[in-house]
Design a protein that fits this description.
With 387 residues, this protein is an alpha/beta fold. The chain is built from 14 helices and 13 strands. The strands form 2 sheets. An 8-stranded mixed sheet has the order 3-4-2-1-5-7-8-6, with helices on both faces. The chain has a 5-stranded mixed sheet with strand order 10-9-11-12-13. β11 and β12 form a beta hairpin. α4 packs across α6 and α9 packs parallel to α10. The protein is globular.
């Protein structure tokens, strides 16, 4: 992991406050994510023991007064055995079929396990589209907020049955980070089959990293990608990325193992704690910065680079010198300098076919020459994030 962040001058007592996990014991709202590898058995299918133990810990926390949202992988894995599949399929259609079969099985197990504690669960399936479009993420927030107010534990998963490669989150770790922002959670807890982040391979005597106070603490840390037995899609890398996204935008995060769930929720010293090191941001901008599928590039002249980067203004056609890629209006594009340095990402208002005739011209001139609709920004400042 690398970063260009500059370490701030330490403030007396800041490290102690950053490492203080008491926020977990007193949190109003927590998002917990669990991976497929933690819920499935070696032989395949759902591990009743693992799922029940997790539900016990979360239900106890819910019954103590904390609102819980569970982001759960496992639908595809749960559907493998009923379909006679020995391992996770690679093609999208079979993944969708397995998810369709497995999601119902997974929810039935959660309903039973939480119900033993008098806790009701609900199913919420999301695609990236639901969090990138303003009206849809407003509806998602409203629904989740109401479920929580009714004492329900929403069980969130990516809608694998209908999601395409182009609109997938890629893994539920990133989905959990965005859901945590969407519902304004106090803490994001990421559970897997690894108990903590280490400064190297644990089998080689590496040391546990108990606290990440900022990106600088990840310099030189090698993070693994693979999940156990090919069941999951993430690994420690995506968990660290999700925790970093959360901490960099106002939400504490904890990475630990699923058996540590109860201890983690009690604020005990387990796993790796990612302390808040930035302010909260709109969920759409988080998606744009970290998850959006980029369809093209806009090459900016020096004046436009300064306007976008330094003054944080909208991008106008007059400041664009070249267009690269094949994209439509509404797609995500990168804005780069003449040297190719990425300055920002944004949602473009015109297609790649429309833009060449507009380059270097003012919006007023374009409005007169091409008509109404061509007198607006190429990327509005509200749909733009610096990277």
């Amino acid at each position: 992991m690398t970063s260009n962040s500059v370490t701030a001058t330490p403030v007396p007592g800041a490290a102690d406050r950053a490492a203080d996990r008491s926020v977990l014991s007193g949190a109003r709202r927590i998002v917990v994510k669990v991976g497929s590898s933690s819920l499935t058995s070696i032989k395949g299918g759902i591990s009743e023991e693992s799922l029940t133990a997790l539900a016990d810990a979360l239900a106890a926390k819910r019954n103590a007064g904390t609102e819980i949202i569970l982001v759960s992988s496992g639908a595809i894995a749960a559907g493998l055995a009923p379909l006679g599949l020995a391992k996770r399929p690679r093609d999208l259609a079979t993944q969708q079929a397995a998810a369709s079969v497995g999601q119902g099985l997974l929810m039935a197990r959660y309903t039973q396990a939480f119900g033993a504690h008098g806790v009701t669960v609900s199913q919420v399936l999301l695609t990236a589209d639901d969090l990138m479009r303003r009206s849809q993420h407003t509806n998602a927030f409203r629904a989740l907020n109401r479920l929580l107010s009714l004492g329900v534990v929403p069980v969130v998963n990516e809608n694998d049955t209908v999601a395409t490669h182009e609109i997938r989150f890629g893994d539920n770790d990133r989905l959990a980070a965005l859901v945590a922002h969407l519902v304004r959670a106090d803490v994001l807890v990421l559970l897997s089959d690894v108990d903590s982040l280490y400064d190297g391979p644990p089998s080689h005597g590496a040391k546990r990293i108990p606290l990440v106070a900022g990106p600088q603490d990840l310099h030189g840390v090698s993070v693994g990608k693979a999940g156990r037995a090919g069941i999951g899609t993430g690994g420690m890398l995506t968990k660290v990325e999700a925790a970093t996204i959360a901490a960099g935008s106002g939400i504490h995060a904890l990475v630990t193992s699923t058996p540590n769930a109860a201890a983690a929720l009690a604020g005990e010293d387990v796993g790796t704690w990612f302390a808040v090191n930035g302010a909260r941001k709109p969920v759409r901008l988080l998606w744009l910065a970290h998850l959006a599928s980029v369809r093209g590039r806009l090459v900016l002249d020096d004046g436009a680079v300064k306007a976008v980067r330094d003054r944080h203004t909208s991008l106008l056609p007059a400041g664009i010198s070249a267009v690269e890629g094949d994209f439509e209006a509404g797609d995500a594009v990168e804005m780069v300098s003449a040297e190719g340095t990425v300055i920002a990402r944004g949602l473009v208002n015109y297609s790649a076919a429309e833009l060449p005739q507009m380059l270097g011209r003012s919006t007023k001139e374009l409005g007169k020459a091409l008509g109404r609709g061509y007198d607006r920004e190429v990327v509005h400042v509200d749909d733009l994030v610096l990277v």
